[in-house]
Amino acid sequence: MKVGIVGVTGYTGLELLRILSNHPHVEVTYLSSKSFVGKSLKDVYPFELDETVLQDIEVERFEDCDVLFTALPAGVSYELVKDLKNTKVIDLGADFRFDDPSLYEKHYGKKLSNYETCERAYGLTELNREKIKNAKFVGNPGCYPTAVLLATAPLAKNDALGTSEIFVDAKSGVSGAGRKQDESYTFCELNENLKPYNLVDHRHVPEMEEKLEALFKKKINVVFAPHLIPMNRGILCTIYLKTSLSIEEIHRMYREFYQDEFFVHVLPIGTYPTTKWCLGTNHVFISLTKDERTDTLIVMSALDNLMKGASGQAVQNMNVMFCFEEQTALKFKAVYP
Ligand SMILES: NC(=O)C1=CN([C@@H]2O[C@H](COP(=O)(O)OP(=O)(O)OC[C@H]3O[C@@H](n4cnc5c(N)ncnc54)[C@H](OP(=O)(O)O)[C@@H]3O)[C@@H](O)[C@H]2O)C=CC1
Ligand SMILES: CC(=O)N[C@@H](CCC(=O)OP(=O)(O)O)C(=O)O
Known about the structure:
The structure is a single chain. By secondary structure, the protein is an alpha/beta fold. The chain folds into 2 domains: 2-141 and 308-321, Rossmann fold (3-Layer(aba) Sandwich); 144-305, Dihydrodipicolinate Reductase, domain 2, CATH 3.30.360. Helix content is 29%, strand content 21%. The strands form 2 sheets. It has a 7-stranded mixed β-sheet with strand order 8-9-7-10-13-12-11. The chain has a 6-stranded parallel β-sheet with strand order 2-1-3-4-6-5, covered by helices on one side. Strand 5, helix 6 and strand 6 form a beta-alpha-beta unit. Helix 1 crosses helix 11 (307-321) and helix 7 (143-157) packs parallel to helix 9. The longest helix has 15 residues, at 143-157. It is globular and about 65 Å long. Bound molecules: NADPH dihydro-nicotinamide-adenine-dinucleotide phosphate and ligand 2. Its EC number is 1.2.1.38.
């Protein structure tokens, strides 16, 4: 199967290439860049050892691929790919994530033409597998929404959420911001530092709320506090919510909900996840603790933002769309320590 990566020079693009180089059923035939057209990938990243020449972004070349991964800033992919006839698209940005295009317009400041007519699915594999199978366009979720939705979805199935509000404290490694050059991402700004950013009005809040509403069949407000942490990769979300169920009942529900999932692990009660367990893998670790005194459930989820939070999940979705075994090329174990 022929695969293209548009935006291979970014962090998620490179991660896609790392994963796909282990995939027995695909050949990566098209790699594109904006700034390095005509150079080989090896010229830009000597460790890649890949002499493939980086192409310009040419829509005509997209049709030669069976599937195209677009790993571009939000707002660029949609217009490039929306009219493709035979090529399936997995977009790592936000352009295909929303059911309600007015939410995208409000939070990303751009109108998407004819959005309603494109056959699209939200690419949170474990929660949307059947739709992903037949979709032409898959909107791969944001990294924080992946962590938060997987950590809360079992409560929806059992109507176990006692309130209409959840509180999320999140920490992310710096690769989550992409390879941008910006003063706030320089070494001295980040090293030995823990930095809150975009509190409350982060763009992932409307994405989380839209998907939570669909899951819980009621409006759920998300109070969200993200932080940058001086690590390359990894996300840890700590979610506070109310439920009247006992920790044993909740733990049983979560275990049951994810019992057939290869990538989602519900830890024993009292075991807390760490980001290092997921490093370079597509696995997600979830833990549950209840503060009985305040009747508060604390759910934690840890994942690698470039893997399950982006490129790993994108390949998982490709496997679902093309009927390959879902774990193909994704059986990485953590790099530890
Ligand atoms: N990093 C992460 O953990 C996650 C990222 N995402 C999303 O995935 C997408 C890619 O992210 P990431 O790889 O981190 O980003 P990077 O900033 O690392 O890379 C961006 C890529 O897009 C290309 N590019 C930049 N601007 C344009 C443009 N105007 N037109 C065409 N190409 C352009 C760059 O090309 P060149 O290098 O040639 O200039 C580069 O290949 C984004 O939408 C991001 O929000 C989603 C989940 C997690
Ligand atoms: C650390 C950091 O900056 N993380 C990014 C999220 C990465 C991601 O999932 O991005 P998109 O939704 O834009 O695709 C952020 O907070 O915007």
